[in-house]
Amino acid sequence: MSILFKGRPQGASSGSVGPLQRILMFFIDHARQAVNSLGELYRTPFASLMTIGVLGFSLTLPSTLYIMVKNTEQISEQWQQASEISLFLNDNVSEANAQQLVTRLSVWDEIDSVSYVSADDALEEFQEVSGLGDAIKYLNQNPLPDVVLVVPTSKHATPTAAAILLDKLRKEREVEIGKLDIEWLERLYALLDIAKELALLLALLLFFAVVLIIGNTIRLNILNRRDEILVMKLVGATDAFIQRPFLYTGFWFGLLGGIMAWITVSIILWWIGWSLESFMTLYQVQLDITGLDAKALFIMLLLSVVLGLLGSMLSVKRHVSEIEPE
Fold this sequence. Notes:
single chain; about 325 residues; four-stranded antiparallel β-sheet; about 65% helix
């Protein structure tokens, strides 16, 4: 028997039924129709799995892009050296004055950390990494200046804010030259902005496709049950009562499609996890992929259910009302 005939049609006599019983019967009817609509999906497994698979894979791409962009932002936070400012001090600045400068800068709101590298320490480090070895010892004097390294806070690590901070630091009396790799910083943030816009655009297009897919599936279900809908209207059932099972079908499609999308995203991220780990090792960055927690699952399921209800609602509002007994 079709799900359209299961449940008490609205408009039946209820004069002897109290308010509490009416409320109870309302929820019982909804629960019965929700279970029956799920049973209809079970009775047509191949068609249902095809629709759920299309919805799940449609939601997989924007979800994967969102998680990857989120983790890319996590990586960019570890690349704070991209916005690290190098302050080369004057030759006549003593170590005590340099330490005073470090203390003075460390209380600035725009600065996250300040470190002092003496000329001797810089030369020793250069000797280790350059491979010149004993050749450095033949220098008459140390050619390297004392350097103060300044790391801005995340709020002031953007290209514009970092450039403003650099101009401010150059005005300190101990500073001779200030350096900041603005071009690299601009490239980094430009790539992140492009990734965010691309993820948003693809998400909107695929969400629209999901609504169309569910709407078309519900439309076909309505047309296949045209005769049943006509009989229901002849016995006095309202459009809202007839539409309810189809809305629950859209709900189940959205919920099951969201679960499939979450499983697929988990498999994809697990599959590429090894490659990402090797790639991050080359750049000496620690990456722990996040985004597959309970919060992400809830958001994904909520979004897919909303899309399923929206697609089914747009379809039933139009096609059920068009079916009228002659």
